[in-house]
Write a structure and sequence with these properties.
The chain is mainly beta. It contains no helices and 29 strands. The strands form eight sheets. It has a four-stranded antiparallel sheet, with no helix packed on it. The radius of gyration is 19 Å and the shape is globular.
């Protein structure tokens, strides 16, 4: 979906595993930060927001080299998603409020507006939860989760022609809660993944290319919660990473998928009794396999993966717990994913990775009263 090398698809842990929902995530469990390329230079950038401002920082390694501000209508519009919504290779912004969704098409520099599109949201009945390319045309669609009068459905808005064309998926009265979009079968179209609740608890569902055709993945009752996904075996499909609860406590389970989207193997990675919280699945070693990145109390942890087999973990510093890992992206285009961390004041720091677990810490990018934007992809 992105025009840059991005982290594996990131999903937030449910509250029972100690991680709350992201502010933008709507009715489902919230994801953690993932970067976007707003100026199509192959380097990840960041978006931050406050009630009065949406700001994009263009990154080069550890530094912000330029920035642009986008209005919120006095706090009416809240940033909900970002993605390539007009096929110009740079990310655009999706904000929502006051019964309307505003799509801001970002210019080539990544710091200004080149156009705007407004989409009605049924008086707030349709909440934006994501932007993802479900039909493989290179342009992201906007994903809505229904609430109130629209409860029990997901709406997909294709805006490739400039006017939205809608398709819908049933969520069985809300038993299926939207989680994230990944490619489970390697066809370059994003598949919409849901976690089951109520009568569907203990199962995850992937609707292929946003259609009614679905794959179902048993979670083993409530022992495992699907939390992340990424291509850990390098076969072109995103694989599933669960976090253990109850009998599974203390481990992450990695399940590889084949090009039909079916599980092929499972492996288990200790996480110190959940003292290390899985935050990202991304390729830190540039070997074509995604690795696991964790937040710990006194350090971060990166565990290299070869399929379901874990290698030797390394422990990048986080200031003794002063910095929290928010996500990963390649900010200097060296093919190694870098760590994006924040401190208690919401200042941002980029820790450049060299593929061995060692990181070079950049200077703080001051928060300016802004909070790093969370997004599922």
């Amino acid at each position: 979906m992105r025009a840059m090398k991005l982290s594996g698809w990131l999903i937030g842990l449910v509250a029972t595993l100690g991680l709350g929902s992201a502010a933008m995530a709507g009715p489902g469990p919230g994801p953690t930060f993932v970067g976007f390329d707003f100026n199509a230079d192959g380097k990840g950038d960041i978006a931050r927001s406050s009630s009065g401002n949406i700001r994009v920082d263009i990154l080069d390694g550890t530094s912000s080299t330029a920035n642009g501000s986008f209005p919120t209508g006095g706090g009416v519009f809240i940033l909900r998603a970002a993605g390539n919504l007009d096929n110009d290779a740079n990310a655009d912004l999706v904000a929502q409020g006051g019964g309307t969704v505003r799509v801001t098409f970002v210019n080539a520099a990544g710091t200004g507006t080149k156009g705007t599109l407004f989409i009605p949201d049924g008086g707030g009945a349709w909440q934006v939860v994501d932007a993802a390319d479900v039909n493989g045309d290179g342009i992201d669609e906007i994903i809505f989760s229904g609430s109130g009068s629209a409860a029990g459905a997901v709406r997909i808005a294709n805006i490739a022609t400039g006017s939205p064309v809608y398709t819908f998926l049933s969520t069985a009265g809300g038993a299926w809660v939207y989680a994230f979009a990944i490619d489970v079968n390697g066809d370059n179209s994003k598949d919409l993944v849901f976690r089951g609740t109520g009568g569907a608890a203990g199962t995850s569902r992937a609707n292929l290319a946003g259609t009614a055709t679905a794959k179902f993945y048993a979670q083993g009752g409530t022992s495992w919660v699907l939390t992340r996904a990424g291509d850990v075996d390098g076969n072109g499909t995103d694989d599933l990473v669960d976090t253990g609860a109850g009998p599974g406590l203390g481990f992450n389970r990695v399940r590889t998928l084949n090009t039909s989207g079916d599980p092929t193997a499972s492996g288990f990675v200790p996480n110190g009794g959940n003292s290390f919280v899985l935050k990202s699945v991304a390729d830190f070693t540039n070997d074509g396999n995604a690795d696991l990145a964790y937040q710990g109390a006194a350090s971060l942890r990166v565990t290299p993966m070869t399929g379901t087999t874990a290698g030797t973990s390394v422990f990048p510093p986080n200031g003794g717990g002063a910095f929290t890992l928010q996500g990963t992206e390649d900010t200097n285009a060296d093919s190694f994913f870098d760590l994006v961390v924040t401190n208690g004041s919401n200042d941002v720091r980029i820790q450049l990775s060299n593929g061995t677990g060692s990181t070079t810490n950049g200077a703080l990018i001051p928060s300016g009263g802004l909070v790093l934007f969370d997004a599922p992809n």
